[in-house]
Here is the input.
Amino acid sequence: MDLNKTIINSLSNQPIGVFDSGLGGLSILKTLKNKLPQEQFVYFGDTAHLPYGDKSEVTLKSYVTSIIRFLEKQNCKMIVVACNSAATVIKKIKYLPFRDYQIIEVITPIVELIAAQKKYQKIGVIGTRKTIGSGMFDRELSRINPNLDIISKATPLLAPMVEDGFVEKNVLFPIFKKYFEGFEDRELIIPACTHYSIIYNQIEQYFNNSLKVLHTPKIIAEKLDQVLLNQNLNNPDKTEKSDLFYLSDITKDFLRESVLFLDRDVDFKQVSL
Ligand code: DGL
Here is the structure.
């Protein structure tokens, strides 16, 4: 019997773990599910500890380590770090029970794609204080392509506003005015926060559609698909199992807000790590 083949086949049927500080990662999950309907997903939202965007590196590393161990116990074959703030620390955690290729975070695939393309030179990056303060986007983009002109700005009000449903133009535009000072000549904005997918259109409209907002969930879904195929980890048959959803704290507000990100109701279970 070919032992390697048996191990790989058994992994193929296992779920893919996706996590975020809260609910923003559900927008990534929605895109992953559309791209890979045959896969089963296990989602974890660390709602007891959000926001991640204001946490120290030490604290974030300990939260992320606990979540990854939880997803390992769920038998996940791959992990998608669907949170930019968490993505800034994942590679700094020494011992994780997964190989490098089994962990996809939301920063590296974006950086690799944008640094390689020639269309956009003037790039704006927005995200939480943690993501922007880490300097990861500026550093990695410039390392691969030193010719890029990059401006990054922390936009910490936007994630809570999206969660609370404040997504109308008349509420957002005065805040954009302050945050987007200096962005007038940008050709592309990288929304480096999983909550922002809800307001891509509003950002483009603020700039009268003179720039593009990068649709990051699609890029992460492409990357996941590619890694699953390359590693022979893709589920060849449509899974019979339903996706599972866990939160570290459940409130009525979270349940209401989750519909905004996922476009449907799901049955969340509470789990303390
Ligand atoms: N999901 C987080 C991120 O992508 C934003 C929300 C938070 O600060 O927890 O960085």
